[in-house]
Amino acid sequence: MANGFTDDDDALLAELGVEVEAKKESARTPREERIIAGFEEIQRFVEQHGHAPRHGEGFDIFERLYAVRLDRLRAQPDSRALLEPLDHQGLLNGAAPAIAEVPEDISDDELLAQLGVDAEADDITALRHVRSAAEKRAAEEIANRERCEDFDRFKPLFDAAQAEIDTGARITQPIRKDAGFLKTDIRAGEFFILGGQIAYVAEVGEPFKAPNGEMDARLRVIYSNGTESNLLLRSLQRALYKDDASRRVSEPTAGPLFSGESDDGDLASGTIYVLRSKSEHPTVAANREVLHKIGVTGGDVAKRIANAKLDATFLLADVEIVATYTLYNINRVKLENLIHRIFEARVVRMIFDMAAGVEGRPMGVKAIATWLNERGILRRGRRFSTGGVHAILTASTYHGQHYFNRTDSRNDRPRPPSEWIPLAVPAIIDEKTFNAAQALLQSRAPKRVAPRLVNTPTLLAGVARCGHCGAALIQNTGKGGQYRYYCCSRRLKEGPFGCKGLRMPMDKLDGIVIGEVTKRILQPEHLMGLLGDYLRTALEREDRNRDRLRQMRQDHKEAEAGIARLLELVEKGLMDAEDATMCERLVNLRFRRDELAEQISDLTRRLAMAEPVITPAKIEKLALLLRDKLHHGSPDLRQAYARLLLNEVSVQPHEIRISGSKAVLARSAATGVAKTTPAVLSFVREWCARQDSNLRPFA
Fold it and tell me: What is the rounded radius of gyration, in angstroms, for the C-alpha atoms of the chain?
């Protein structure tokens, strides 16, 4: 009969044809769980002391309590029936003495009197026969580990979990008490690392209320060494907290990158963004729904695309955000490189197809670079150049043959081919296509011609700049070398999409620059005015610089002290070396220290150089000499003097800006041009990388 029903209710339901099934009870009730837990404490006592608990005033209070508990369990038939399968020590077979009924409302003093303990009132602060909190926790966390009889059933689970950890399909996360790890987070089927062993929660029993009022449950935990334990859920939780090396093993999912939520310990490292271009270019407009820009940024996506119409990366047009994905615990730079490489294979095939003319006329390296840049196709975040396209078309790696050890890492010099180490790699294109591309490149190679009769060095090489993009202006020829021009190097490499800079005849620009310099600068009266103002402020500038030098040295000393203090805290264990805040402070201090060291070095060098003594006669001599050398000197000297006088010549369609250094003019007037002119060859750029004989301006 169902609980709560009378016989009349059952009869009525039977006439209606309704069968009432009795509610199935769980395997064990909370009372039975408490009985078993109490009996297990007695069993542990017997294992530790080698005998059953005894009565008597001379024994420990807990031994006497265990003795009373054992007597009660022996006297209760239902308890004996429940515990007999667990009684491997024969504790229930002893005599079951008659136990007097103990009233429910018995006081503490009466209970102690029945146990033979005299209440002492001499000192209420002295606790006798009371275990410490540490002893209580140790007793609660003790659970017998025994051999797992059906470990063969669990061994494949451990092997699979270990393999997934090794491959990264599962990750291990440290367990921190302050992160909110609760008993409810321990569920059946989960893996943990405890005491150097992988622990698998095989079963979670029925929950019951523990003596402290919290819910608890009995577990079956299998360990990777072939043992098992039936400890309580809260005991496992405390053991995980106490073990500094304990970790939780995640589920074999793709991770936070592809999930809709993050864990408390996850650290945001960037954002993947997917954009759609609003460009009106016919090709882009026709494929707007399928053409997307994918990128990674460490900042705000809205700020990243704020000036999209001024950035060639976004096709010089506004964009709209299609989707964003937040990254956690991932190096965004490495991820961006990986994304580029995923799409790079298709771009490589496209380049070889264009070179071979699969869909039309074969294209050269410059035409290919221009076509790719016009459509915003990048290689690892950068636009294509003629050199980059040529490197792809000639790289054997793309047809399955890669070579290691091609460069000596000690001096960056190429090694002979006999020392190269070949390695087979997955091919992106077949060897036939690669060989066809090499034949086409050879057929388009420019023929070698005899040296030009006029092999004059470019007068403004190194100082002429494009006014649109700032790239260097280099020599470009027309009509088989009959005409020479200054042309933007970026425009030559990337096509009109890279820069819309002008193309100016070389003789015209040289004449304009030399003429204006001669007229506006290289006249004695003009030089005197320029250098007079310069020298009048020299002493004031020197005083200010000495004050700056003292302050910079003090700041440098403070930065060094700050770095030392941080490292000392790490050495003493007061700060974690991996702490993000500490790392950021250390990087900032080191950057500040190095920056100040460089500024101190430059300023010290400036102060060591005494201001030159200039006279009107020296200025007139300098003006005459420079005018003569710039107009009538040899090509090498003309170029050297142009670099001496000019820092930069910025060329735009309607404006040419010429800048130079007054300090160089002052030293040239005082010491003579021969000591100031660079003695190295003009085309060796790395010869004087910093201020030396070829002086540069300081301010």
Answer: 43
Between strands 413-414 and 407-408, the pairing is: antiparallel
How far is it, in rounded angstroms, from Cα 134 to Cα 176? 21
Taking alpha carbons only, the member of 351, 361, 358 closest to residue 388 is 351
Least confident of 27-31, 416-420, 669-673: 669-673
Q: What is the reported pLDDT for 308?
A: 84
CA distance 389 to 37: 76
Report yes or no: 296 and 266 within 8 Å, Cβ to Cβ: no
- The three-state DSSP-derived secondary structure of 528-596 is HHHHHHHHHCHHHHHHHHHHHHHHHHHHHHHHHHHHHHHHHHHHCCCCCCCCHHHHHHHHHHHHHHHHH
> What is the secondary structure of 373-411 as a DSSP string?
HHTT--BTTB---HHHHHHHHH-GGGGTEEEE--EETTT
Cα 433 from Cα 680, distance rounded (Å): 47
Cβ atoms of residues 335 and 328 within 8 Å: no
319-328 vs 292-297, strand pairing mode: unpaired
User: pTM to 2 decimals?
Assistant: 0.31
Residues 184-199, mean pLDDT to the nearest whole number: 84
Nearest partner of 297 among 288, 306, 287, 309, judged by Cα:
306
Size of the chain, expressed as the number of residues it contains:
699
Show the tokens assigned to 265: 């310990």
